[in-house]
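agent> Task received from the user: take the single chain below, predict its 3D structure, and emit structure tokens. No templates, no multimer pairing.
agent> Plan: (1) validate residues, (2) run structure prediction, (3) serialize to tokens, (4) report one or two observations.
agent> Step 1 OK, no nonstandard residues flagged.
tool_call: predict_structure(input=
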Amino acid sequence: MTDRQSVDISVFPRSLRLDSVASETDEYPANVFEANSNAFDKSARIGTYNASEESELPAGVGQYEDFHTIDWLRDIARDRLRHRHIVKKSQESCWEYVKGFHDAWSGWVCVLIVGCAAGLTAGVIDIGANWMFDIKFGICPQQFYFSKEQCCWDSNDTHFGDNDCAEWKAWPTFFGAHDPTNGWYYLLSYIMYVFWAVFIGFLTVTLVRQFAPYACGSGIPEIKTILSGFIIRGYLGKWTYLIKSVTMMMAVSAGLSLGKEGPMVHMACCIGNIASYLFPKYGRNEAKKREILSAASAAGVSVAFGAPIGGVLFSLEEVSYYFPLKTLWRSFFCALVATFVLRSINPFGTSHLVMFYIDYNSPWFFFELVPFIILGIFGVCELLQLDFNRLKWLRHQKSNF
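)
tool_result: status=success, residues=401
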């Protein structure tokens, strides 16, 4: 065996020395211990599963260091051993059977929590961004936390346009300018608008730089990297989630040229990473944890665009590396739950999930489906032809070799 130049790992259980318990939220040094993978053969690395040994491994300490990749085969094999152990134990007593039943349904419960939290987060962000956008124009003296629309709900002289209701006070009125046609009124409005926009933008940058540098950017490239098996500690942590939730609504309300679709995926994955620690099945296995992260990314796109199926397709085609069939259904369930929660909150007061939408007032006619049916037939024929050509090419290669 090769020499180790770090902490002696003999104190850890043999079957768990090289198994993953570390995660993106761990704040331990990168060189807690360096285990050379050549020191153990394949059978010794996987070993025999022992449920009591998991608790012996200190929380937050594991094999995977920062900016390293996980071992998919080992983690998946370890989960299979754990599953066989639970199935065997479930036949011994009723309590073990209940524990096995809980383990079987823990994945659905986890994605349920992620969906509810993602929908709630999206609703709070939409409401907060709307209020912070209106604060650049004025304030509601009676309830300062009301946006302009909410402030004018109880008013009988509400006008949708440049005029204000009686309850809403524009900033120039606080400086004695009551005539909108006056130049002083326009100048004060411009100054207050620029002041609030610059102040909110500066506060956004300060919070990100000081508390969560990983909260910058959209986060989708990094999420794709993490789902492919890469470890970036802190990128899906609680501070990143909290700071990005607050600063995203501030950045949008400041008028910056950015959107909240990419950051919603990042925050949903932060929720999935945090929720996975409620279930050791996912919190102690990096490969299994990425199943939850795939479902979380689907929920993030779902609440951003109001499209649950689009979120599942995004997770399947764009970001996920390991996507078994059960993850497909759990991702769809997670996206539906997130969409339902967001619709129940109704952040825009229009019963729609997004700010911009289209109302179709004219019904469609049957003959309009004919072109789409023809396109579908041509698409299926093209796919069959491509598959036929691929099989023909494989036969040709097999015959030559």
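agent> Step 4: summary for the user.
The first helix runs from residue 42 to 46.
agent> Done.
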